[in-house]
């Protein structure tokens, strides 16, 4: 691999469970690899559940059992000329070294590596792993417990780790996820003002709430949304405004 190729390390990270970091890692990685043509790798360091590695096994089995999706997958991989992106399991304390070794030994240049990291600061090696990211994307919801946990930890990353200079972090980006149109708009405004006062970065795009985020494709599906082997259906992306998020995501990472 060329030594001057830029490989970007990205994590969807949060110190609160249930905000969608693993699902978003799979969605964005699949869009980048299958729809936009980047070479992607994923490191699943969310020990012990390793949900992304397990998801890929289910996704592959589901596609093989569904004739419509099997045809789509064959057409996709034939036109792309490349395989599914790898999902490798590691613990947080060794994941950075493993990722660097993978990138340096890969015969094809890797454009971006996504990391699914544990959701607790007490995990051994988690701060070192986060400090090795180039860009961190943190999903937030309009919930007091989520906001308090997220803002405290994001300030720690920005005001302590980044200011010390012993880090690769270039940006930390909060964004609204699972936005319910029925929720109070003033609530989002108040939280957004607080984020600005704390000097933290909030993305303009918001990902709307959808049942698609919480369920995997069914046996008779003709399209997929959350999958590690195919990109999400474009109509579904637009319905939850994931397409707008991807546009802003690409501007931030500047690959």
Could you characterize the architecture of this molecule?
This protein has 255 residues and is of the alpha/beta class. It has nine helices and seven strands. The chain has a single domain, classed as 3-Layer(aba) Sandwich (Rossmann fold). Helices cover 45% and strands 13% of the residues. Helix 6 links the parallel strand 5 and strand 6. The model has no long low-confidence stretch (mean pLDDT 88). InterPro entries: CobQ/CobB/MinD/ParA_Nub-bd_dom, DNA_Partitioning_ATPase, P-loop_NTPase. This is Cellulose biosynthesis protein BcsQ.
- Number of helices, where a helix is a run of at least 4 consecutive DSSP H or I residues: 9
Please identify, by name, the CATH architecture: 3-Layer(aba) Sandwich
Strand content: 5-15%
What is the molecular shape? globular
Sequence of strands across the biggest β-sheet: 3-2-4-1-5-6-7
Classify the oligomer: single chain
Q: Report helical residue fraction.
A: 40-55%
Counting structural domains, the number is: 1
- Give helix and strand order, one letter per element, not per position: EHEHHEHEHEHEHEHH
Instruction: Give the class-level CATH name.
Output: Alpha Beta
Largest sheet: 7 strands, parallel
What's the CATH topology name?
Rossmann fold
- Rg for CA atoms: 18 Å
Q: Please count the beta strands (DSSP E, at least 2 residues each).
A: 7
Briefly note the structural class of the backbone. Answer: alpha/beta
- CATH superfamily, please? P-loop containing nucleotide triphosphate hydrolases
What are the low-pLDDT stretches, counting only 5+ consecutive residues below 50? Answer: none
How widely separated are the two ends? 17 Å
């Amino acid at each position: 691999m060329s030594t001057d190729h830029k490989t970007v390390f990205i994590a969807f990270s949060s110190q609160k469970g249930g905000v969608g970091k693993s699902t978003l890692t799979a969605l964005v990685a699949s869009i980048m690899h299958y729809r936009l043509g980047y070479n992607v790798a994923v490191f699943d360091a969310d020990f012990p559940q390793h949900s992304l590695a397990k998801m890929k096994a289910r996704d592959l089995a589901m596609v093989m059992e569904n004739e419509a999706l099997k045809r789509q997958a064959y057409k996709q991989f034939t036109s792309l000329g490349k395989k599914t992106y790898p999902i490798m399991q590691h613990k947080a304390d060794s994941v950075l070294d493993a990722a660097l070794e993978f990138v340096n030994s890969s015969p094809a240049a890797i454009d971006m590596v996504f990391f699914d990291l544990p959701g607790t600061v007490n995990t051994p090696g988690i701060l070192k792993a986060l400090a090795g990211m180039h860009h961190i994307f943190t999903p937030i919801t309009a919930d007091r417990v989520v906001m308090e946990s997220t803002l405290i930890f994001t300030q720690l990353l920005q005001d302590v780790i980044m200011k010390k200079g012993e880090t690769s972090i270039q940006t930390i980006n909060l964004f609204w996820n699972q936005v319910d149109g029925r929720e109070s708009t003033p609530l989002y405004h108040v939280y957004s003002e607080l984020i600005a006062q704390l000097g933290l970065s909030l993305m303009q795009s918001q990902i709307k709430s959808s049942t698609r985020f919480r369920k995997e494709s069914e046996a008779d599906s003709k399209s997929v949304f959350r999958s590690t082997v195919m990109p999400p259906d474009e109509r579904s992306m637009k319905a939850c405004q994931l397409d707008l998020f991807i546009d802003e995501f690409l501007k931030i990472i500047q690959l």
